[in-house]
Here is the input.
Amino acid sequence: MKKGVILLIIVMCIFTLISGCGPASTSKVENDTANINGASSQSTSNKKEKITLTMWDLRTEGIPAEMIDKIISEFTKKNPNIAIKRTAFKADDLRNTIKPALNSGKGPDVFSYDLGPGYLGVLAKAGLAVDLTTYADQYGWNERFHDWALERGMYNGKLYGVPNELELLGVFYNKKLFKDFGVEPPKTYDEFLEICKKFKEKGVIPIIIDDKEQWPGFHLESIWLNSFVGPAKVKEAIANKAPWNRPEFGVAMDKLYEIVKMGYTNESPLGISYDDANKLFFFR
Here is the structure.
């Protein structure tokens, strides 16, 4: 049997946040926030003072890790009195570690983290992240960043995170197999289902789904909810302004489950890892 035709790739938006874990750390970070974002008022006023900032991020290897190291190198060349002590974490490890670390006063000064009420909102509400609103006004971040990007780093009208990457939700398909089977990329959901049916009849797995790590499924949920319910209602639910158990949400999830019941996916999606799913798609 030939292998995957369509692979759904979803990625999360990550923000750089400034911690507020205790009086000493907060004072240091607030004074140095301007330096982190391109200003040099403190280093200019007292160049002999040595400052060490701890940084936690999610770039554990490869080009992304090299990029962070290069940014730090360039920054410290321009600000020789500031040293950056960097530690890279896997996403789950950082999520499990960050709040206890900040609560203990031993957390990082700068860190990458997820947005939304369940992540950023929890830290902001607990006073574990610094309010950056005045710095955004002072240093023109509103002109340097898209308003919708900054909005994602806000909680209760205050800015706590600066966006450091732009990522996409996308669908990949095998152009050769589409051509061989005489089909075009679907423009409607019904056309999508018809293509799935045709590929299945020809002995090809239409869709590769994986959720062994229990995060890809969340992104699949996002695709179907946004498609059938609309982003406005999804945002309301995320912000706790509306319940998640609305009937239309259930209909969207039923649609996702239907493609599994109809045999349009690989067997046992909950047992396949993200890396293995990619192999099914790329190495046929």
The longest helix spans residues 62-78.
